[in-house]
Amino acid sequence: MDRREFLKILGATSASAALAGCNIKERTNSTSGELGPVPTDKMTYRNFPSVGNDQVSLLGYGCMRWPTIPNPDGQGDIIDQDEVNRLVDYALEHGVNFFDTSPVYVQGKSERATGNALKRHPRESYYISTKLSNFSDSSRENSMAMYERSFRELQVDYIDYYLLHSLGGGGMDNFRKRYVDNGMLDFLMEERKAGRIRHLGWSFHGSKEVFDELLALHDTYQWDFVLIQMNYVDWHIAKGSGIGAEYLYNELAKRNIPVLIMEPLLGGRLTKLPDHIVARLKQKAPESSVASWAFRFNGSWPNVLSVLSGMRQMEHLQDNIRTFSPLQPLDEAEMEYLFETAKLIEKFPTIPCNDCQYCMPCPYGIDIPSILLHYNKCVNEGNVPESRQDKNYRKARRAFLVGYDRSVEKLRQANHCIGCGKCKHHCPQKIDIPQALFKIDGYVEKLKQDTL
Predict the structure, then answer these.
(1) What average pLDDT does range 330-336 have in this prediction?
(2) What is the rounded CA–CA span in Å between residue 427 and residue 354?
């Protein structure tokens, strides 16, 4: 898409967006609080023979984005355990019973925070999912230590759903190195027989060829479930992998393997949409939040076991509970309307960052996700001007620069990137992060030099 076409698309929203500014505050597009009490007894549940007919809430809690607060010692952030407890309590009270975490989420702090919150409730009242995230050290010794540590951090004596984390990156050689050659997969299968693991599966970020090879191993390992990235934008083809969720879902459904869904909102990007796209969805369903469209899309597919959402804020949790209590599947016309909306969204040149934090910490202290998310927000709001000839250039320029300084500390901005590439290898969306940071930094410097 050339610049002229891009500016034409932005034309519908640039005036109002420039006045609003591009800052750290997020637009939630949520209707929570306007629709009365949140149902406590209408949650939609799914069950499948391969997972022992567990009654799993169709809305699952993704624990990759727990709320944080500044560390009292001034060294970074810590998880806000009181707020996590409040969110978990509310979720359980309103029918959410599936919680997904990992040893590497929230800089390695998620499992403990999740375990602390859940231990206050009867063990049979929830299902817990975690992963063998042995990315940096796949030795038998380290992998075993990580496995046992998950039980201690979660404070449980069995794990309901256990995953081989993020298969696909590095191809089948990486899969064999991390799980086969060190004997860990054989060990985990024995643990499944013993009941310490109730169900065994894997999460996926990779190519079609690797996915097919992993499914070909189903007869050997009897995968109980698989976690994939799925949403209405990535349905036909995902930018990062080049393979659409449609293919992944259908291949799993053919084998009756239940599907867990990650990134139903693309890290929140499907709630932070350009105003004219928000208006398009609101025109169709005025009382529904923008997020509800994405969740209804995922829940409409019958082989989906649970749709995971990382809900940092109570209003997001409430809105999502309403969507699934009970779920109203999309009809054929609504599905087509959503696919047409996806085509409009894809015309915007945003960077496909899902705020998963896998790229962090940066060895040079750069706040990579905040930089990319600020840029995306400004693209959606029409605050990425190219020249003085652009409409509302002055306001859009100021909105971008002021918002950048508010969103990202100066010492953590893109100009400090040296291009080491460490972050690039960890990104599940296959973003060339150094290149994106250089591009944004160059754009920032261009705006600063234009003194008007």
Answers:
(1) 96
(2) 10
